[in-house]
Amino acid sequence: MATLVTVAPLFLGTDPFPTIAYALCMLMGVGFVIAGAGLLRSIAAQRRQARSVDAAAPAPADPAAGSAA
């Protein structure tokens, strides 16, 4: 949305925004990268936690092994 608002004056024939507005608009991509990195870190942390819970849980007993004897 910010990109559209920043570029709209160019298409509407009005006075364009100052250069700093375009520079700030380009920082939006940096925000997406930071958010994506945080998402990937969160996914990795949840997977590590799930693996540690699975490793700590005792293995289920095999009922077929006990009745064979």
Describe the protein in words.
This protein is mostly helical and 69 residues long. The protein contains 4 helices and no strands. It is rod-shaped, with a radius of gyration of 27 Å. The termini are far apart. The mean pLDDT is 82.
Could you name the key traits of this structure?
mainly alpha, single chain, 77% helix, 69 residues, rod-shaped
Q: For the report, how would you describe the main beta sheet?
A: none
Tell me how many strands there are: 0
Question: Strand percentage, roughly?
Answer: under 5%
Shape: rod-shaped
Q: Which ranges are low-confidence, i.e. pLDDT below 50, for 5 or more consecutive residues?
A: none
Label the structural class.
mainly alpha
Using only CA atoms, what is the Rg? 27 Å
Please, how many helices?
A: 4
**H/E element sequence:** HHHH
Mean model confidence by pLDDT? 82
Q: Whole-Å distance between the termini?
A: 71 Å
Percent of residues in helices: over 70%
Secondary structure elements and pairings:
Layout: H1 2-12, H2 19-26, H3 28-56, H4 63-67
What is shown here, in short?
By secondary structure, the chain is mostly helical. It contains four helices and no strands.
